[in-house]
Amino acid sequence: MTNDAAKQRCQEDGGHLADVKTQDLHDFLVSQIMKVDGSESHWIGLQYLSGEWRWSDGTAAVFTNWAPGEPNNPDQQCVNLRQPVGFRWDDNQCTKTKHFICQIGPVITCPTRYELFMGKCYRFSVDRKPYNESRATCHEEGGRLATVKNNETHNFLANHVRATTKAHTWIGLTDEATEGLWVWDYGTLLVGDGIWGTGEPNGGTGENCVHIYPDKDYLWNDRICPSSYYYICEI
């Protein structure tokens, strides 16, 4: 569709063309494109208006991911994730036809020090605390220890740990109340097998709290809850 037609279609669905305000969101959208049709370029919600690049919600673009040499044409005022350059951003004529990405729901703004991923905000601590103190800190900030219900979220969190502290990091999962019954910080049960490291969980009643474990390829491990580790809060 043309850019205007894509906007109209998104509006009919109650949304707008996607506002790609972080690298993590950009990477997530590209991963979804590759699952559906990695051969096509896709419109996003960035357009050149009143002398600057603005998102669908009217805010100016701060984060950008332009392909080399872009933007390069004042007559090309709409932006797409361009397939031939690895889905980096490219300005193009708005009348061109492309696939497109809609966003439904409000644009989420994360608190200071938090990062947006898949509609949630995450903060990676720079201090280490026991599990219960980590959980209390997250609650004081209006959130909870991170819930990891899919591989995409796990990969985002684990890759961040891998790229920064490379250290044990608490997430919000424990069987402290009932051995073998794993419960997320906000009260729901773990569904499915989880994303455990080889041989885990193996601590029985002695290891009741879960962390991202560098020694097992940043998968999950159960550990004694008083251990002082980094932690991830989610809002």
TrEMBL record:
Alphabetically ordered keywords of this record: Disulfide bond
- Keyword Lipoprotein: yes or no? no
- Domain called C-type lectin: residue spans: 1-103, 117-234
| Record-linked Gene3D superfamilies | Mannose-Binding Protein A, subunit A
Xref: SUPFAM superfamilies: C-type lectin-like (SSF56436)
Under InterPro entries, the record lists: C-type_lectin-like, C-type_lectin-like/link_sf, C-type_lectin_CS, Ca-Dep_Lectins_ImmuneDev, CTDL_fold
Q: Which Pfam families match?
A: Lectin_C (PF00059)
* Keyword Disulfide bond annotated: yes
Q: Output this protein's name.
A: Macrophage mannose receptor 1-like
Report which gene this protein is encoded by: LOC118429393
